[in-house]
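Quick log. Single chain, no ligands specified.
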Amino acid sequence: MLSRTADNLYWVSRYVERAEFIARVLDATQRLSTLPAAYGGVGNEWRTALLTVGASEAYDESFTEVNERNVTTFLAFSSDNRSSIRSCIEIARQNARAVRTAITAEMWEAINGAYLELRKYDSVSMSREQTGRFLEWVKSVSLAFDGSAYRSMLRSDSYWFSRLGVYIERADNTARILDVKYHLLLPESERVGSSLDYFQWSTILREVSALTAYHWVYRESLKPWLVADLLILNRQMPRSLASSYENIVRFLDDLGQRYGRQGVSQRLSRSILTRLENTTINEVFKTGLHEFIDNFIVDNNKLGSAITDQYLV
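-> predicted structure:
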């Protein structure tokens, strides 16, 4: 396969996954921002949303005030923001169009249909309720694209590069959600276990479609260390770091066997997975959750670069 084709397949999936992630962040932020001050609302939720997706500095270059409308416009609809939902869907469609013969008709219809539908949304006139429906639509687009890839693609290098994009992006997103919750979202005046803390954790779990899974696995009230355990180490949870890396290692091994050569990306991915397998949540908290996640994000970015150097250039 041409490296250009592999690159397009990899990035179309990353951008679709990123669009869904931003939709989930905005949806969760809307929920948190509705908390009355007496219950614990603190007013930093919209800045937190920008920090979660790594767009705070870019936002400040365009806006002077951090509020719901401005942040929603910037993260969902701004053409100047390369990681906005609009930009993600447009770039994903460009990548898909470039490899039209390497993806299935169902995948093309999902992303091209989303691109055409996106033109109907006008951020200026949208109410909060309409924005909520828009965010649900974005999630459904990602599900349709991801589902069509899973159900219709031949299990070959095209599929493996596509899946790598999904899981590299997903691992990064889950890590950022956890990190922001612990160090930015919870005010210093609030103790872990407070009513605000509980509401925030349940919102974060909803953000990654894991609230029901949490209760199935742990069968008790929300506890920060158990939420972290679910989203970091539990392989049964599709959005956990461990589950993402189990898939990353598998698909990189498939590529290594297909091309008859192992490389830096295979070794690095196995090293990250081994560290996840050989740690416990108690050890994570003992050394510091922020430090653990920060190191993970750095390693995940290194793996993304290694994949690019090995296969995509």
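The mean pLDDT is 89.
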